[in-house]
Design brief:
Blueprint: E1 3-11, H1 22-36, H2 38-46, E2 53-55, E3 85-91, H3 96-99, H4 101-105, E4 113-115, E5 118-126, E6 137-138, H5 141-146, E7 154-163, E8 165-167, E9 170-172, H6 177-191, E10 204-216, E11 223-234, H7 240-256, E12 269-271
Antiparallel strand pairs: 1-3, 1-5, 1-6, 2-3, 4-5, 7-11, 7-12, 8-9, 10-11
Length: 277
């Protein structure tokens, strides 16, 4: 089952911005995995596409339930010591969570986690929905599918960190229906065990778009992605089964994100509730 875990962290020394990049957080996660299962850490490191986990950038702000909410994705100043931080880790592979049980249970390790020169103390792990934390959740793939609506034709997403899609040799920041839903479909079919057929998303039409592009400089090459909100509506004579499949994919977005570099903090996406009028 997919898990979306929130780790509340407390740095006991300042964290320089150079150690807050997606690459450094990716390395920290693999180091943590390897500390409890070296072979698993090596396997995750060597995976080249559709990795079985996603990571958020390190966050220093609270995350209220509101529609227009972006996350922090780039730090230009150090995070001061004793600043309450949170970090989202999502696991897509059914077996990954159980293999890392020792990591989750070891909340007060004798040796704290290291991010650059800073030690990080874990204060809490959240794995279920919270009033003030919409990114924490867990649900089996069967539940995601069975609970998906057969009638809801409105799909709205919040893209909370810069998102871009690979098209051939190049990237595109435009969240077309095919880019978004094919990204979700490929990850669903790889990890869920409930294969959905390859399908045309021609019945989906964008009905609201409020996005902007952002350029990140903390990658080897400049990374440009979009953040914002997009709504799609299923129009025309569409079978309830197809509507159900589209809704299941939309609900899955919380866990898997969309687009490129999700293991390094990009493409964090969640479904949001909007006025159906």
């Amino acid at each position: 089952m997919p898990h979306s875990l929130i780790l509340n962290l407390l740095p006991i020394a300042p964290i320089p911005p150079g150690y807050l990049t997606g690459r450094h957080l990716h390395a920290l996660f693999l180091t943590l995995v390897s500390s409890v299962d070296k072979q698993l850490g090596d396997r995750l490191h060597d995976a080249t596409a559709q990795k079985s986990f996603t990571l958020s950038p390190l966050q220093t702000k609270k995350c209220p339930f509101k529609k227009h909410h972006y996350l922090e994705w780039e730090h230009t100043e150090p995070i001061p010591e004793h600043t309450l931080c949170w970090w989202r880790i999502s696991l897509l592979d059914d077996t990954l969570f159980s293999k890392l049980t020792h990591l989750w249970l070891n909340l007060n390790p004798s040796r704290p986690w290291h991010l650059g020169p800073a030690d990080l103390m874990i204060t809490k792990i959240l794995g279920t929905p919270q009033v003030d934390q919409p990114w924490a959740n867990a649900c089996t793939y069967s539940q995601l599918y069975e609970q998906a609506s057969e009638t809801n034709r409105l799909i709205a997403f919040s893209f909370a960190t810069p998102t871009t899609f690979r098209q051939g040799k190049f990237d595109s920041v435009i969240p077309t229906r095919d880019c978004v839903f094919n990204s979700l479909l490929s990850r669903w079919n790889k990890y869920s065990g409930i294969e959905l057929p390859d399908q045309s998303f021609d019945a989906l039409f964008s009905t609201f778009v409020n996005i902007k592009t952002e350029r990140l400089t903390n990658y080897e090459s400049n990374f440009v992605g979009m953040v914002g909100e997009v709504s799609y509506r299923i129009l025309g004579d569409v079978e309830p089964l197809v509507i159900k499949q589209v809704n299941a994919l939309a609900d899955f977005a919380l866990y898997c994100g969309v687009g490129r570099k999700t293991p390094m903090g990009m493409g964090m996406t969640r479904r949001i509730i909007v006025n159906k009028s």
